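User: Could you go from structure to sequence for me? I need the amino acid at each position, not a summary. Structure tokens:
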């Protein structure tokens, strides 16, 4: 098996993964009212410029999934490059049509290349973690069907919890009234959101203050360690709040020294809805 991987920009892959020759990416974008486009990236400098522009908007910009034409071009390039198997993993079908579009395109190439399309039911660090696992399993010689089974199992058993620190973007997006957003910001109310079993972002709990959110994350990690005897991995994602997240991760590591903990940045497409300083935590059950 000579495998290639297709993902989309909301995985916010590390530079090491992006440079791999068999990893291909299709991109989402953010479109403002005036027609200007912000490309999906978690580069800090571009993020700062993006948030400054976002502050001037009375309503949220829209986010667009990758063009079908780009997906066709990507699959054609993979075949031309000599790969015989594709693993595609995309942003949750509960919040984007990217997975459905990718599966539709790949189904048209069944006579030319084997393909396995995985709905992450999540975003960001969850996608990156599963991609890393797929690469490892391929290197270990695991068969394609088993890799697909494992990746799908992880996608359906992982948990992502999101904390929105500033409620303004939820109000601009129509998910919260302006009055409620102002009151919530004053009272330091922190909606703790999560991806449900359908891959949609819904309310998990309402908590007061960041500290209480972080305490709750510790409780959720403790529960997961008891639920998954093979172990778990924890990853944090953030929208321009590196220093705070590093402190959270250090506290978590001190309490759970045997758990692998990593940090990555959120990009413009996800941050459009969560706002600056939003933070997320992934709990990923391991497969031994």
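Assistant: Here is the amino acid at each position, in order:
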């Amino acid at each position: 098996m000579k495998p290639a991987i297709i993902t989309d920009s909301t995985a916010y892959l590390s530079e090491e993964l992006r440079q791999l020759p068999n990893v291909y990416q299709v991109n989402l974008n953010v479109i403002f009212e005036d027609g200007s486009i912000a490309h999906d990236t978690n580069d800090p400098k571009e993020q700062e410029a993006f948030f400054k522009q976002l502050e001037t908007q009375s309503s949220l910009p829209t986010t667009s999934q990758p063009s079908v034409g780009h997906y066709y071009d990507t699959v054609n390039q993979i075949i031309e490059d000599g790969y015989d198997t594709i693993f595609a993993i995309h942003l949750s079908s509960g919040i984007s049509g990217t997975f459905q579009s990718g599966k539709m395109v790949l189904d048209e190439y069944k006579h030319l290349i084997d393909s396995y399309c995985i709905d992450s039911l999540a975003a960001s660090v969850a996608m990156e973690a599963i991609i890393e696992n797929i690469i490892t399993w391929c290197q270990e010689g695991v068969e394609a069907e088993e890799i697909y089974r494992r990746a799908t199992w992880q996608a359906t058993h992982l948990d992502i919890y999101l904390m929105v620190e500033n409620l303004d973007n939820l109000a601009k997006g129509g998910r919260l009234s302006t009055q409620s957003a102002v009151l919530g910001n004053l009272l330091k109310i922190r909606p703790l959101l999560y991806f449900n079993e359908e891959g949609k972002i819904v309310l998990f709990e309402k908590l007061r203050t960041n500290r209480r959110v972080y305490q709750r994350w510790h409780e959720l990690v403790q529960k997961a360690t008891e639920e998954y005897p093979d172990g778990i991995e924890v990853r944090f994602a953030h929208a321009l709040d590196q220093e705070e997240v590093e402190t959270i991760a250090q506290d978590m590591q001190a309490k759970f020294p045997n758990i692998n903990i990593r940090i990555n940045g959120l990009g413009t497409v996800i941050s459009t809805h969560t706002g600056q300083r939003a933070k997320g935590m992934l709990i990923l059950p391991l497969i031994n």
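One structural detail worth keeping in mind: Residues 212 and 227 are 23 Å apart (CA to CA).
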